[in-house]
Task: structure prediction
Amino acid sequence: MNPDSWKNFIFDEIPVCLSPMAGVTDAPFRELVSSFGASAVVTEVISGEALVRNREKTFRRLINGANDFPKIVQMMGANPENMAQAAVMAETLGADILDINMGCPARKITSNESGAALMKNEDLALKIVESIVKSIKIPVTVKMRLGWDNEHMNCLQLAKKLENVGVRMLTIHCRTRNQMYGGQADWSAIFKLMDMVKIPYLCNGDIRSGGDAFSALEQSGGMGVTVGRGALGRPWLLKQIMEFLHHGRIVPPPPLEDQYRIILRHFQNTMDFYGQRHGLRIFRKHFCWYSAGLSGSSAFREAITKSEDVISIKSHLEDFYAKHFRDILGPRKK
Result:
């Protein structure tokens, strides 16, 4: 580990980080976000059990995708021994920071006592953290939610316990597990953490602009923010937020012609990383996010869904964007 990785990240002016999102924050996407600017990016969530079993797909998720950034690996699981063993493997493979997932609300995760389900079982959660902290030298962080539901909002109390067993930083998605991603994130629900813990904490949830980030910091008392779904189709968003928070500047999104080139670059990098067949399947959702809000996007998404080869997909992409800026791409090739 670069000894400055943790210090440089955590003492950034106001950290603005990319949240881990399963099936989204793979190496090509993290590389793209990093190229615009961010304080840190995090891997997709990795199963500790799968890593211990040496699954090839899991090792692929450990690829950094942002070589100038600290390598932050997020891991989930419910077995303290296996999680500790997997953490050692992640450290050996170059992780700079190990983040434990206690926030994923998906039923297939919580049904296995992982993710947000750990907030219902604090004893198990603390055993997992303790076993990992004792097994590795790199900093251990935790991402969690406000609680399981409105009747069991234990994030403040659990935060203090996590600090006591060696967690170095917290990220809190300001919803309960039962809210999933609905309703509105309650940033103010974690304001009291300022007086309860000495470790830094980041605020997450509904941050889609510099103004949102400013309000989240003000209401939560956090030292920084993490951005998840707001960055879908907008890999430049974190840089926009950083410009607003650090310099008070409102930076517009890239012009459409630049967005077109960004999509092509992201698409090609995804093909190179996964291979054509798997890459096409992975990238269809990105085409949907990139095109959202543009006229004709519904027909474009339908055409992309039916296409099975790179050439036809690039043709549909060029047609779609040519309708919005005909003078940029020039005449279509016959």
Observations:
- The radius of gyration is 20 Å.
- DSSP finds 16 helices and nine strands in the chain.
- Residues 190 and 220 are 5 Å apart (CA to CA).
- The chain has a mean pLDDT of 90.
